[in-house]
Amino acid sequence: MAYLKNIVQKLETVFQIQLHGQYHSRTAIYGIRFLPVRQNRPASASADTADADSPDIRQSRRPSAPEENLLYIRSAGQPIPKVRPPHLLLLGQKDVPAYPEILYIREDLEITEIFNCIDEVILEHSILEEKRKSLFQALHNNIGISSMARIAHSYLNNPVTVCDTSFSVIAAYPVVSDTEHLEMKQGRTYVKDRLFQNMENRKIIEHIYTSTVPFITTLDEHPYKWVFESIRIHHTVVGYICVRGTVREFTEDDLEFIEVFSQMLSIEMQKDSSYRHPTGFKYEYFLTELLEGHFDRTDYILDHLIRLGRSKTHFYSVLVLKFGESSKNMLHPKSYYEQLLTILPDCMVVLFRGDLVILLPGNSQTPFSEKVKNRFETFLKLNHIRAFISNPYTDIARTSLYYQQTHKLYQLYEKISRPREQYLVYFKDYFLEHTLSLCGDSGLLAASVHPDLLRILEFDQASGTEYTRTLQCYLTNNRNAAAAAAELHIHRSTFFYRLGKMEELFDIRINSGKELFAYEYSFRVLDYLKIFTFP
Questions:
Q1: In angstroms, rounded to a whole number, what is the distance separating the alpha carbons of residues 105 and 83?
Q2: N or C terminus: fewer CB in 10 A for the chain?
Q3: pLDDT of residue 42
Q4: Measured between alpha carbons, how far is 298 from 312 in angstroms, rounded to an integer?
Q5: Beta bridge partners of 362
Q6: CB–CB of 453/519 below 8 Å?
Q7: What is the 3-state secondary structure (H, E, C) of 453-480?
Q8: 312-331 burial string, b = 16+ CB within 10 Å, else e?
Q9: Contact between 502 and 456 (Cβ < 8 Å)
Q10: Residue 362's CB: how many other CB atoms inside 10 A?
Q11: First and final CA of the chain: distance in angstroms?
């Protein structure tokens, strides 16, 4: 079977012609027939032998195909039978036929070449349909993702790889042994940083996230083309298909097959318990107790960690992962465990009070290297997750306090103005707002704003000047006059003139570190209370 649109596209491409007439692109064609002119019958012929205007079938690809799914072809110049077949293609037809549903080609082409071309399209699509059935059968028989990848390879003839959103290989056929781009970690194969960075630079990761259809692309240092297609469960990206065109070029049929393959993988992955059910770890109960604050002895906690196969480190951070509003159809949170452990192999993750909570050890106050940060941030974006990160700490017995710090950070972040596309939120960037949130009386908090700043604000509102913005730029640029002037798009001399004018008008001391700190604090309070928002 092939759709009429596929047959038309093939004919127009191969013969460089245009096919005319009205047709439905999704009409299924199972076979092709020649429709020659009827020969005159003897007068003695039986009247009920055949109708003189009925079609005479000379060749048949599938005799069992129903009449409405057959395409007849004939050279033009002969009368059209009164009893026309549903689908008729005329060759060398110069004029528009009386019936608009008749397809025609104006050029005089060899009819056998047209027949063979259409026959080839039907055969190719029949093979595609058989492979689809194989995928459905594999799905029905529960033979797994690896076997489905093998079936996909048998049709595509190019290497097929299935990965999750942590860029770990779930299945591949043939088995991948590409040490240049892949490496083993904790018993799993995953994409190396070099290939990951290449994909990110070429916007392939972003395209996987936004596209719902397969797409062909290229990668640096590779002479062949690649096809990527996202795998989604409840509209959430849970993985992707990667096919490398090392054996042959990709066709439109390949893309159609890969799209079906993606849908089958989505169903198969939902059958996998790792996407539906909790995944237990030896440390799960211990980490839950630690977050609850049930342990207070550091030596006991460290001994327990060693028994669990963990090592003592200098620093720890707590991360709380929160799903965004666009993740209403997300998977069960524990379905993300394995992906997180691939990106952050030394971490411990647990579902705690409805959230994914991570205890991240390290030997530096910076929780991630730049490469790990990029990969983690991409994972968060693909899954519509925001990570709230505590300050680093050294005493693991205080983990419960830093969990509370991170949870408070999330509550604060929801209330204040914040960047929409921020996926990593650090407590260190909001520590002052957190302190302000501890003051229950907003009136007293507003009263703590330095009176000089209030006077400047009132003057600007009455006079249309920009002294408030000038002072704010000076403070946010770390008292750097050149940087502040550049941000304000004014000359340095103009900037210094404004500072001098402010000292004269408002009796303030620009060179006083104590007062400048008070002004900076006041700006943060005003921003927190929504009285004044930073530009």
A1: 21
A2: C
A3: 45
A4: 11
A5: 315
A6: yes
A7: HHHHHHHHHHHCCCHHHHHHHHHHCCCC
A8: eeebbbbbbbbbeeeeeebb
A9: yes
A10: 18
A11: 62
> Could you give the C-alpha distances from 1 to 6, 121, 123, 237, 252, in angstroms and in order?
10, 8, 7, 32, 16
Predicted local distance difference test score (pLDDT) of residue 161: 94
In whole angstroms, give the CA distance from residue 449 to residue 462.
Answer: 20
Mean pLDDT of 12-17: 93
φ and ψ of 308, to 5 deg: -85, 5
How far is it, in rounded angstroms, from Cα 9 to Cα 521?
68
Provide the b/e sequence for 221-256 (b: ≥16 CB within 10 Å). eeeebbbbbbbbbeebbbbbbbbbbeeeebeebbbb
Token couple for 212: 């719902």
What span, in angstroms and rounded, lies between the C-alpha atoms of 25 and 505? 77
Q: What average pLDDT does this structure show over 357-382?
A: 92
CA distances from 188 to 81, 93, 94, 270, 380 (A): 66, 62, 64, 20, 21
Identity at 219, one-letter amino acid code: L
The per-residue pLDDT for range 476-531, each reduced to its tens digit, is 999 999 999 999 999 999 999 999 999 999 988 888 889 999 999 999 888 888 75
C-alpha to C-alpha distance for 182 and 260, rounded to whole angstroms: 26
Per-residue pLDDT tens over the stretch 407-416: 999 988 887 7
How far apart CA 369 and CA 367 sit, in angstroms, is 7
Instruction: Please state the separation of Cα 373 from the chain's center in Å.
Output: 18
Structure tokens at 213: 């259809």
pLDDT score for 277:
40
At residue 6, the pLDDT reads 87
Whole-angstrom Cα distance, residue 454 to residue 526?
10
Task: Report CA-CA distances (Å) from 502 to 314, 415, 475, 506, 514.
Answer: 48, 33, 14, 6, 17
**Half-sphere exposure for 421 (CA within 13 Å, toward CB):** 2
φ, ψ at 71 (rounded to 5°):
-115, 120
Q: For residue 54, what pLDDT band results from cuts at 50, 70 and 90?
A: very low
CA distance 511 to 41: 115
Find the range with the poorest average confidence among 57-66, 139-148, 156-165.
Answer: 57-66
Cβ of 355: how many Cβ atoms within 10 Å? 19
Are residues 8 and 14 in contact, defined by beta-carbon separation less than 8 angstroms? Answer: no
* pLDDT, tens only, 319-338: 999 987 655 556 667 678 88
